[in-house]
Amino acid sequence: MKIGCPKEIKPQEFRVGLTPNAAREAVGHGHEVVVERNAGLGAGFPDSDYEAAGAVIIDTAEEIFATADMIVKVKEPQAVERKMLREGQLLFTYLHLAPDPEQTRDLMESGCTAIAYETVTDERGGLPLLAPMSEVAGRLAPQVGAWTLQKANGGRGVLMGGVPGVGAARVLVIGGGVVGTHAARIAAGMGADVTVLDRSLPRLRYLDDVFGSTFRTGYSSAGLLAEHLGLADMVIGAVLVPGAEAPKLVKRADFADMKPGAALVDVAIDQGGCFETSRATTHADPIYEIDGIMHYCVANMPGAVARTSTIALGNATMPFMLSLADKGWQQACADDPHLLNGLNVHAGKLTYYAVGKALGIDVTAPQLMLKAA
Predict the structure, then answer these.
(1) What is the Cα–Cα distance from 314 to 99, expressed in whole angstroms?
(2) d(Cα 195, Cα 46) in Å, to the nearest integer?
(3) Rounded to an integer, what distance in angstroms lies between the CA atom of residue 277 and that of residue 234?
(4) Which of 15, 24, 270, 304 has CB atoms 3.0–4.6 Å from 53's, for a disulfide?
(5) Strand 349-350 versus strand 343-346 pairing type
């Protein structure tokens, strides 16, 4: 199979879909790998690293899209890239279709087969290709939130850990999954007073067993959420419904009871955001203010630490990428029902239920796509 890796073109996106190590593995499996010139520079991988791995450097994305059997990326294809996709081509990347009807329509019209990192599962019900970026984003969230809290940026002017005689910042983390756990660990490590809310009692027990008194936990309810919103200097939105649009848990009306200059960090922004007032921002212009509350809603947070993120993502995606290349998507998905869960679009049909529900589009079961292929 010919595997193509174009350079990411989303603003301030420095990650790359294939590491040189992944390219070397694919070449070792007998596949041809083509990488767009300078695609890896933002993550610290020069073209020479890919050439040493056996990949071929191509000058333009157009040539890669025109000739590759499988396109491997990081972020969802932008409008200009979607126009280059063709019938029968395999796309393997993050998609986040639920809040993005235009992308969904374009992928369906292209006739391509699109497998989304964020809906591939594992035997424990986890999301193995989302987890590494969730870990990165979770660890970044308190860091960028602390920056947002600085008075020069419009925040409350509160130091995360306080100083002797002055209390620490109060941080509320909504969601105790991968993002929330890592966010709480880092925020607590910065000296903040941290509370994590979640609706899974088993998850709350796990957090208590593992982290003890490092941070507090609570069962998320409307009343408890409202109580903690009024106390928080920073709120980290870490809610995920796999493949679906994130629920809007914090409403604009809640701001009246919050501290002026409090910071909202919406890690769920790729899935539409979990705050009613969230809108995607970029690393170049990351924050904005509504009713005195600061919002940080960068849609590709892990891109800020591109080398760490690229290597972590490459470690997770490599086995699936090799399986798709070695077997073809049909056999790879037939052999692995967890990979089949990643199938979102095939031959003009939407194949992921949560996306169809969010966008009001009919869905064809992915198993039927295997039989028809």
Answers:
(1) 25
(2) 42
(3) 15
(4) 24
(5) antiparallel
Output the six-digit token pair for 328.
């073809």
* Rounded distance between C-alpha atoms, residue 9 and residue 165, angstroms: 48
DSSP state of 285: B
Choose, from 198, 270, 336, 346, the residue flagged as catalytic: 270
Whose structure tokens read 């539409």?
272
pLDDT tens by residue, 325-345: 999 999 999 999 999 999 999
Please state, as a whole number, how many other Cβ atoms lie within 10 Å of the Cβ of residue 262: 26
State the chain's mean pLDDT as an integer: 96
Q: What is the pLDDT at residue 357?
A: 94
Alpha carbon distances (Å) from 226 to 146, 223, 281: 22, 5, 26
DSSP reduced 3-state for 134: helix
Q: What is the pLDDT of residue 6?
A: 98
Which residues pair with residue 266 across a beta bridge? 237
Residue 140 three-state SS: helix
Distance of alpha carbon 154 from alpha carbon 259, whole angstroms: 13
Residue type, 288: Y
- 96 as an active site residue: the answer is yes
d(CA 78, CA 300): 14
User: Residue 59 has what pLDDT?
Assistant: 97
Residues 6+ apart with CB under 8 A from 182: 134, 135, 138, 139
49 is catalytic: no
Q: Categorise residue 243: left if φ over 0, alpha if ψ from -120 to 50, beta otherwise.
A: left
Q: Which regions of the chain are under pLDDT 70?
A: 372-373
What pTM was estimated for this model as a whole?
A: 0.89
Tell me the one-letter amino acid at 51.
E
| CA separation for the pair 24, 234 (Å, rounded) | 43
Q: What is the dihedral of CA 346, 347, 353, 358, to 10 degrees?
A: 110
> Tokens at residue 30, please?
């007998």
Supply 359's token pair: 């966008």
Determine whether 140 is exposed, middle or buried from the number of CB atoms within 10 Å of its CB (0-12, 13-18, 19+): buried
DSSP label of 222: H
Report the residue count for the chain: 373
List the catalytic residue out of 96, 182, 228, 295: 96
